[in-house]
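Anyone up for a design puzzle?
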């Protein structure tokens, strides 16, 4: 029974080793990040420059070590062979000869300048510059082919290589063009390599600047907004798609927060204004208090004040609560709303197109629908609800056959505590917050609510929410 437990458990030793490797890796990066540049620009530049330097070092090393050395060896061997041939010819020449033919042929065919000097000691070996392959290679190649003492100078005159061979009675001096003994123009390769890297670096810097500037601009805009300062006037989303999207999202977020703050202020002033009006009336009525009807009026005002305050508190509470997005099932909602229509004795037609599952904040979204449908049930007899879930948008249309709202008041009714009941049959149960709450919820989801005329004769409410 416990065997499966044993099977699934990782072997203790391996597990410990793995976690210790991970721990030291994390420690290494923590320490590294202390030394690494902190800014995005410098970091991205490092990401571009480091591989380039690494690649070039490897290429330069391989080139120098393999290719250059191999070619030098070949060319030096050829030079050594030619020198050996000249030495053989000089040795074969009878004593007293002036070596004219040999010198002429060497000059014409090999481009060597050959001199036969009287016997003299060879100069001491000269210093060899750092990273000079030629001197050593040529020396080895000549030593393999000539048994006489010799001396070479690959440094003195940079265009030629001087070689001297000591015969018993004379010294043979040969000047060979340097390009015949060693690959020339090696520096050109390095110049090209460094040059192209500089060009690449320049391009990388220019591109990186352009990519990073929008991020910096977004950072600054977000910082200034977070500190309650006005946004930089020229801020607009730019750069790569993700950055642009972040910028757009930031602008929308800022607008939403600003709208909400405006609305709250408007509501607060509405509350205080309305309460003040009622309290003034209170005072007047209190002054005249006496009859029973006066006291009744007083009670009515107290009720109005209470429901207004309660409505406000509810609204404020709903705004403050934070809710996670999750799945809202429109089919379950349909069942519920159909029951409710029956309960209210209203006629409801419901149609649903598309996926019935939407991702929203369910409680807030429920509040939105409850307010709109509640209005329709309150002000009308028959209601139609068309729900259409498109790929990125949820559109809910609620039609009713009630009195509707005149066009010039369709913005007004969204304001908190605004009710149109003054001129029509007064239903005192409402506080005028329903539409304000509904629009607030829609906007907090990134959508909105519009009011128009309904084909049923009443009001049509269209809710659009990205989902
Ligand atoms: N479907 C509708 N038909 C006609 N008029 C409407 C409809 N919905 C809203 N209204 C008008 O808009 C006003 C504001 O609506 P809102 O939902 O904000 O407040 P309320 O319904 O009066 O009160 P509450 O929703 O806070 O209980 C209402 O007083 C009403 O006059
Ligand atoms: Mg309402």
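Challenge accepted. My sequence:
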């Amino acid at each position: 029974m416990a065997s499966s437990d044993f099977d699934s458990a990782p072997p203790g030793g391996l597990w410990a080793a793995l976690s210790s490797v991970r721990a030291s890796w994390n420690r290494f990066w923590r320490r590294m990040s202390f030394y690494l540049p902190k800014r995005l620009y410098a970091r991205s530049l490092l990401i571009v420059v480091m591989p380039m330097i690494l690649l070039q070092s490897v290429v330069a090393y391989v080139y120098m070590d393999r290719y250059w050395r191999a070619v030098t060896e070949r060319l030096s061997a050829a030079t050594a062979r030619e020198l050996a041939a000249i030495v053989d010819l000089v040795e074969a020449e009878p004593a007293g000869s002036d070596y004219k033919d040999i010198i002429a042929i060497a000059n014409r065919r090999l481009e060597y300048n050959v001199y036969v000097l009287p016997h003299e000691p060879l100069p001491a070996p000269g210093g060899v510059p750092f990273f000079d392959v030629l001197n050593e290679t040529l020396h080895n190649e000549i030593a393999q082919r000539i048994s006489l003492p010799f001396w070479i100078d690959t440094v003195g005159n940079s265009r030629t290589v001087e070689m001297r061979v000591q015969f018993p009675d004379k010294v043979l001096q040969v000047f060979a063009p340097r390009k015949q003994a060693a690959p020339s123009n090696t520096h050109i390769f390095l110049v090209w390599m460094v040059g192209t890297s500089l060009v690449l670096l320049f391009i990388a810097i220019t591109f990186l600047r352009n990519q990073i500037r929008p991020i910096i601009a977004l950072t600054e805009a977000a910082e200034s907004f977070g500190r309650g300062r006005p946004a930089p006037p020229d801020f607009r989303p730019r750069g790569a798609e993700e950055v642009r999207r972040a910028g757009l999202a930031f602008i929308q977020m800022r607008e939403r927060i600003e709208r909400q703050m405006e609305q709250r202020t408007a509501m607060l002033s509405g509350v205080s204004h309305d309460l003040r009006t009622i309290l003034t009336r209170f005072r007047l009525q209190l002054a005249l208090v006496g009859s029973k009807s006066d006291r009744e009026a007083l009670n009515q005002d107290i009720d109005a004040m209470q429901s207004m305050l309660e409505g406000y508190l509810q609204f404020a509470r709903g705004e403050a609560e934070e809710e996670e997005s999750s799945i809202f099932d429109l089919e379950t909602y349909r069942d519920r709303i159909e029951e409710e229509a029956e309960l209210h004795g209203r006629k409801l037609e419901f149609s649903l197109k598309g996926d019935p599952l939407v991702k929203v904040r369910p409680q807030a979204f429920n509040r939105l629908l409850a307010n709109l449908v509640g209005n329709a049930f309150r002000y009308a007899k028959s209601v139609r609800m068309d729900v259409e879930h498109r790929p990125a948008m949820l559109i809910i249309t609620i039609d009713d056959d009630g009195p509707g709202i005149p066009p010039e008041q369709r913005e007004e009714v969204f304001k908190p505590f605004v009710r149109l009941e003054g001129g029509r049959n007064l239903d005192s149960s409402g506080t005028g917050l329903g539409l304000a709450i509904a629009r607030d919820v829609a906007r907090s989801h990134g959508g909105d609510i519009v009011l128009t005329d309904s084909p049923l004769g009443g009001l049509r409410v269209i809710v659009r929410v990205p989902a």
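A detail worth pointing out: The pocket of magnesium ion (ligand 2) is lined by residues 371, 374-375, 430, 434 (CB under 6 Å).
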